[in-house]
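Table 4 source record.
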Amino acid sequence: MSYIGKPKVAHPGLPRNELNLTVRDYEGGMSTLCAGCGHDSITGALTQAIFELSIPPHRLAKVSGIGCSSKTPAYFASASHGFNTVHGRMPSVVSGANAANKDLYYIGVSGDGDTLSIGLGQFMHAVRRNLNMLYIIENNGVYGLTKGQFSASADVGSTAKKGDANQQPPIDPALTLLSMGATFIARSFSGDREQLVTLIKAGLKHRGLAMIDVISPCVTFNNHEGSTKSYEFTRQHAHVANYPDFVPVAKEIRAEYAAGEAMPVRMHDGSQIVLRKADGAYDPTDSVAAFQYIHKHRAAGEIVTGLIYIDETKPDMHELANTPPGPLASMPFEKLCPGKKTLASIQARYR
C-alpha cells in the first residue's frame, strides 16, 4: 500500500496522557482512501481510544487482510507493530502472534468481504478459541477495491450504484457470533465517534475476542439512495440499544450513574463498562434476549448499535491451552527447547 508520512508538528497545548504522549503520537500516515470514506472516521476513533487508554505504542500490534479496510493499520499508531496478511487470513496470523506474545494488545482490522466471505472460516475459529484481540469489521456492504460488487453483508433489496438489487440474504456478524457463544459483540456507525471510541476502549480491555461491526459507508460505490449502508440510511434507521461508557478502574465512577439508571459490567482487569439503558427490556448479558432484540429491530428496518452482548466468564485462548504465565517470546531457549531426552519422554506418553 502507499504510505505518505504526516508532518510531525503538534501544538504545545495538546492534552497528554499518562505516558506524556499526545494524540499526534498515535497517528500514522496520510490516508489514500476516498475523501469522506467512513474508514477514515474509524481510524480517528482508534487513534483517540488508544491515546486515552495510554497504551505504549510498542505494546500494540495491528494486523489486517486485503481490501480498503486493510489499509487502516497504516493510518494510526505508526510506532506500533503492523502486519498486512493475505485475503481473509488475518485471524490465523494474530493467533500465532498472540500465542508467542500475549502481553501485546492486538487490533485486527478487516472488511465485510475479508471477514464474511473469503475469511469467514478463519473468523469463526478465532471466535471459537476466544482469541484475545479487538476485531473491527469496517462494513460497507460492497467490494470497494473491485468496483462495488455486493459483499456478503449486503441486505436483500439494497441496490448497487447501477441500480441492480441484491437478492441474496446477508450474513449478520452480530447474529452469527451470538449463535457461536462469542463473549463481546458490538455494533456502531463510523459517524458516531463518541459511541465508537467507548466501544473500542471496552473491546481492548476485554479478555477474549471483542468484535465491533462498524457500518462504514463507501462514498464511491454505496452511498446512494437505495443503499442500506449509506450515511443517510444509517443515520435515519440507527436504533441505539444502550449508551455505553467506559470507566477505568483507577477513576471514580461519575455521580450521574445512579442506582436503577445504569447497569455496570465488570471487566477482567477491574474496570467497568456502564450501560445506560435505553429501555428496560434488554439485558446485554442474555444472549437469547440479544438475538431476539436484533431480529425485532431488523424486521423494522432498524440497525441496532451499542454493546449488543458481553460475557466475561469464558476462558480465553491461553486459559484453554494452559500456557505459561509469561509470553512464550520472552522464555529462555532452554525451556522452549528442552532437548531430545525430554521430547522422547513426551512422545513415550502417547505410545
